[in-house]
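Dear support,

We are seeing what looks like truncated structure output for some complexes. This example has two components. We would appreciate it if you could run it in full and send us the complete token output so we can diff it against ours.
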Amino acid sequence: MTEQSPIPDDQTAEKSAEREEDEYLPRPELLQQIDAAIEAEDAAELNTLLEPMHAADIADVIENLDPAERRAFIGLYGGEIDGEILSEIDEAIRDQIIEMLPREVLADAVREMDSDDVVDLIEDMDEPEREEILSALDAGDRAAVQQSLAYPEYSAGRMMQSEVVTAPEHWTVGETLDFLRNEDWLPEQFYHVVLVDPRRHPIGYVTLGRLLAAKRSTPLKELEEDSFRTVSVYADEGDVAYIFNQYHLISAPVVDGDDRLVGVITIDDAMSVLDEEHEEDILRLAGVGEDSAITDTVMETLRQRIPWLAVNLVTAIVASLVIAVFENTIQQVVALAVLMPIVASMGGNAGTQTLTVAVRALATKSLTGSNVWRVVRREAVVGLLNGLAFAVVMGVVAWFWFDGVSLAAVIGIAMVVNLAIAALAGILIPLALEKAGADPALASGTFVTTVTDVVGFFAFLGLASAVLI
Amino acid sequence: MTEQSPIPDDQTAEKSAEREEDEYLPRPELLQQIDAAIEAEDAAELNTLLEPMHAADIADVIENLDPAERRAFIGLYGGEIDGEILSEIDEAIRDQIIEMLPREVLADAVREMDSDDVVDLIEDMDEPEREEILSALDAGDRAAVQQSLAYPEYSAGRMMQSEVVTAPEHWTVGETLDFLRNEDWLPEQFYHVVLVDPRRHPIGYVTLGRLLAAKRSTPLKELEEDSFRTVSVYADEGDVAYIFNQYHLISAPVVDGDDRLVGVITIDDAMSVLDEEHEEDILRLAGVGEDSAITDTVMETLRQRIPWLAVNLVTAIVASLVIAVFENTIQQVVALAVLMPIVASMGGNAGTQTLTVAVRALATKSLTGSNVWRVVRREAVVGLLNGLAFAVVMGVVAWFWFDGVSLAAVIGIAMVVNLAIAALAGILIPLALEKAGADPALASGTFVTTVTDVVGFFAFLGLASAVLI
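Here is the complete output from our reference environment:
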């Protein structure tokens, strides 16, 4: 970091904190002071400390408290929790907070939120709780939220906000400006004015920048953007995030089955979805439940992890059954027991490499019908070449180590077979899961390593018992 | 998908394609037609097919061609490649395309690009090629690009565009609107007017929406947004993406060491960086080079993957050395060879689970000094409980399978030891790497599985030779 000149305004404290070592996090001292204030049950101090903080940072503070501290915190600060803070808190923890909050605080918080945030808040609630929150909204907002909830989970309909700024297609810039100045319901953030025909079909949009730069007499039609595209209200949220990223959209009008405008999705929501989908992919590839968070309790963590460990135990036992078939061979040549994990481990790693590239390519829609056979062929060739390379290396190692040229040949051949199979399994298994409608990130890893363990042990020990005994 | 009503405009074809099965991808038939046109060397047909497509989709088409087809494609369509298409193509392939393009086409393409895209294009080029492209720019753009290149790679300075819309802090809405109408250099997309003091320090910003909705006489000062925060030109691009995501920013002014405004970063760039960083994390966790792409050739793929397979071979051999120590024991109790991979595999999986959660928490800055010991403690407890649970299951399995209660006890104890160590390794290794300034995603996996293999084999075989022999 470079030296800062003195900053002549009241943001000095915040700015200088921002420029320190980990400049985008609240300072550790501040977090300690917050902890101390909670312990001392000093509500005034807590208020003073949290007052300058961004809602997202306050949400992080709340997430990082342990359950007992969190209850104490709500006792001291609950009255200050607003819609913005609530929208920022992780879902699992938010549900706890909501139960602790006084009903009237919750009602106030919800009234401040955008319709898409309210939907996000209540979509997983039970009917009575949901009703309670809906009843806090005024009629118009409640209708918008209920409409949104009528669309499938993870659809564009759940992501969108219903407040859209529109203008008839024949308007001029001047008419639009006059209209905007006289409206007081405008959304917090909007980036386009959507042009609609008389039946409320969106037919184009104009960026606010162009609107500002144009003469009052210019027809909106002349300022339309090329990037315009609509999203179906039933589109999957992952696909929505994909088109925002692919086409660099800032906002996209959402249309119903009759192509009528029903809402708008903005890039910040698309960015959140993209972030969540990535997170899910990473966690699923590692065999961890996709709701895992660093703030989970021990019990929650066990619940997220035990299922995949159990699956792994079963597949590991299956691989061991293969070894058991060759017990006699191992007893005669113990070197096999020493070397066999190497063959399995190399296969597992090579398979995971291919698998990961395939899962990501499927997620980013870059592995499609048009290139799938080219990619499969490439992976097979790569697998074979990797196998040959490591067969030579490992053959030499085994030869020197155990002084047996047949053993060296056996491990070399087993290596080629296993790495070639690993590559094929790494690409074909995720493709098959995708074809079957499953998430390729979810179960591929286990399938692939089961294949490489079984094939690795079988090829190596089978060959050995044929050649060496 | 629901039924669509007829769409009465010229976008019918594109829209109906969008609503088909995989509605956000170009239709497979179209891709086949493009392939056919390339093969027939039919430039006119190729032009007709590509004309309605978005630059990002044309870039995808180019990426998915094999090298020979790509050369043919450039021969037919090279003259149409513009700045937008170039910015969308993957870096490795873009470099090939640039070499094939006629110099004047390249110069035209570069002149159309925003300064941040030009920087992205040329930052990895050698000096002579870089000079050639710079010389195609007009003096102002060239200066902006050179200024940006003077900042470190992966810094905010490289991400930002230098075109910023500013207004003196004392202006009214009316003055600002008149100013904007008289400027013809405005950026393609902008979302805020940045308020600056006479020394060009940014002191706030106003969204275009508020500007449009306000009366002409309103001072800009009254419309300032709370969300305002600046980014240092030296900030790491990953940190920039983090603050956009954390604070829901749409654009952020970039300041130099003297806090003077030098550019602006917009959310679409932050979204790209977030996407790339995730991709990098996933690939690194799988031991694949972070530049891997589905379009790589066999040689490129081998180059990305062999290094980590080689590292894995070394660690697998280390684990085998542990087994070799106990060769005599295995010869006497072959069941050990059958069961030992299960202990190692369970440890590897449990360690990878913990590791992945830790790496993600570090990347999202949710694992910090204030909660690190709580998390380490939780992981240790989870590891112990997982170990106990699977010790019981595996003990029972071993007992029935090999009819030996001592063997069951040995595998049970080894399981507890290995899963507890796996959990500690899974959290402590990424923390140590982060502390040492390395990317925890990069090497953690190998370290963790080495630990779990070595500990697994040692605990199981060591105990067995003490108890069973």
